[in-house]
Structure formats: structure tokens, C-alpha cells
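agent> fetching stored inputs for the 2-succinylbenzoate docking request
agent> found them:
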Amino acid sequence: MKISSLTLYHVSMPLVAPFETSFGRETMRECIIVELRADGLSGYGECVASREPGYSYETSGTAWHILKEFVAPLIVGQALADAADFQSRVAPIRGHHFAKAGVEMAVWDLIGKREGKSLKDLFGGTRDSVEVGVSIGIQESASALTRTVESYLERGYRRVKIKIKPGREVEETFAVRKAFPDLRLQVDANSAYTLESARALKPLDDLNLLLIEQPLFEDDIWDHRLLQAEFKTPICLDESVVTPRHARYALEMKACKIINIKPSRVGGLSQAIAVHDYCLAHDTPVWCGGMLETGIGRASNLALATLPGFVLPGDISASDRYYLRDITHERFALNSDSAIDAPIAPGLGVTIDEKALKEFTLAELTIAA
Ligand code: OSB
Ligand code: MG
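agent> prediction call returned; pasting C-alpha cells
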């Protein structure tokens, strides 16, 4: 298919509630929506780079720059065969995985629409719905957190992740565990500890958590290996796994027992599938992480998580957990079994609410052949 144009929409959308992690607090969520046109079709993708470089060095500003100056010239006016072809074209651009992943998603949407197949079918997904949980940000107090957890359990979520940071972990996690002894519970530190300060996490090792996510620095697979040796609870890597190679390093080093897969972090859905395949072949459970996606990225995550290795619930909550108003007409709802149906229509299986997209757009740029 010949790419006739690429359009970028820098959007900012109000979250239903502020989301606080060890790296900051967000009340508005920024991202870049990518639209590719080819052969009379439009394909959409979501680049999850946010306003600040807190989770990753990439921001909506760096992604805009990389997409406009470097990715667009490599693909606009060119014939693209598939995602692998896209990856080989952008290979000379070092890093900037969020930027690349946003465009790769649009390529998959185009391929699916052209072939009349859903992403789930293109990927070879093996289930129609995906078990999901909810990721809860840092709250004002341990009791406020427990009340927030309870409200999500009432809404039907059966797996909860809580965000932690130094000084806001032991009391919080103990309070939630005491209130809900049988809850499938996990914690996420977003790289807030060092090997030394991670000693504070030791009491959590007795709380029967599903996993402890990314306690240490992003570039520190080795120290995670030292930490995992001291914990019976599985360590799960998020930020540290940025390529399929890093998944291999982590498993060979025994730095973790579980991997959180985010297509954005590894540079695209094709790379996410490669990490999945590697983990499946090495008996390592994976689950699909989230970046507070709009309906576009949510559809993509759901399709990915239909693959057989995604055996733990994903951070892919219902649309109403994030946005009162989304930019897709489709909204994703939680089924009674704490699962969400993967889209079945061709491509991502979602349609754009042009009016909402326009209202949330801060800047727009089209690069045409
Ligand atoms: O570390 O998993 C994370 C959101 C933004 C950045 C990083 C993370 C998260 C989440 C939210 O935990 C997951 C979701 O989309 O619900
Ligand atoms: Mg995480």
C-alpha cells in the first residue's frame, strides 16, 4: 500500500480522576494520534508519549519532532508492505519507540481494513475476551486507597494494581491486603527504588502479591536479578524491557519471573509479539500493560492480549475508568467476569469521533506526498 499522507494530532484529554505515580501526577493526558492514508483508507495509531519525561525520556514534544522530521520522510509517498517493512525503514532512527509504535499501529489498522480482518485475527489471537484489572494511582492515605480499591471491586474488577513509592508502600499495601485478604493484588514502583532502598519492600514479600513491578532503575536489569534472588514474590519488569533482546537478557539473568508487555515501550506491536513469543517459548507469563490509552490504543492492547501467553490480567480497564468522553465512538465495558471483549471489526475495529478528536486537539499537522 502506498502511504499518501501522515497526519499528527497532538491531543490533551481530561482524565476522570488524577493519576499519581512515583514520577508524577496527571490530570490531563496528552498523546499523539497518528492517521495514515493509503489507497483511500485511513489507519489510526496512538503514540503514548505524554507531556513530561517521567515514565520514559520520550514526550509528546520529542515524538512530534521525530515523527515529523525523521519518520514521515521515510514513509510518506512510499509503498509499505507490512509492519516488518515499516520497522526496517525506521531502523536507522535510534530509540524513540513510542513514536515508532504509534505509526506501526496505524500500519496494522490499514492492513486489517484492507484485508477485512481484525487485529486479533491478524495476530493469531486465541481468545475473544481478555481478563483485565485496574491500576490505581497513589492516593491521599492508606484508608483513601482502601476505599478506592473497594469502589473498583464494586464495579467488577477482580485484579488490582496499586502504585507505590518510597515511604508510601508498606502501610498502603498492608491496609489493602488486610481489607481484601483474597484479592489478586500487585504493586508498581515505576523505578523509584535503588537496591539499598528496596529493602523497604521486604515486608511486602509476605503479602501474597501476584508480582512487584519495576522496583529499580530502567537500565538496571542486573540489580533486579540481585533483588529477585532475595524475594519469593515474582519481580515483573516494565520499563527495563525495551526490546525483545532485553526480554532475553532479563530471563537469562533471572532478573524477573514475569514481563509486562507494552507495545509502545518496545517500539510497536510487531516487537510486542516478538517479546510475547520469546516469553511463551521460555514458560514466562506476560500481561499487557497500559498507558491510559484512548479507545485507539485500548483496541490495540485488547487485540494483542488475545495471544496465548497473556495469562495474567492486563492493565486495560474499561473506558469509563479513564475518560468521560473518548475519541472513538466505541467504548469498552467490563463484562461480569472482569474481562473485556476484543474488537472484531476490521483493523483496530474502532471508528473515530471526529468532533471529539477536534475538540481535544492542541495542534495538527499533515505531511502529504
Ligand atoms: O507503569 O504501568 C505503568 C500509566 C502510565 C504510565 C505508566 C504506567 C501506567 C499505569 C496505568 O499503570 C495502566 C493503565 O493504562 O490503566
Ligand atoms: Mg508499570
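agent> quick read of the result: Residues 55, 135, 188, 190, 238, 289-292, 315, 317 surround 2-succinylbenzoate (ligand 1) (CB under 6 Å).
agent> awaiting further instructions
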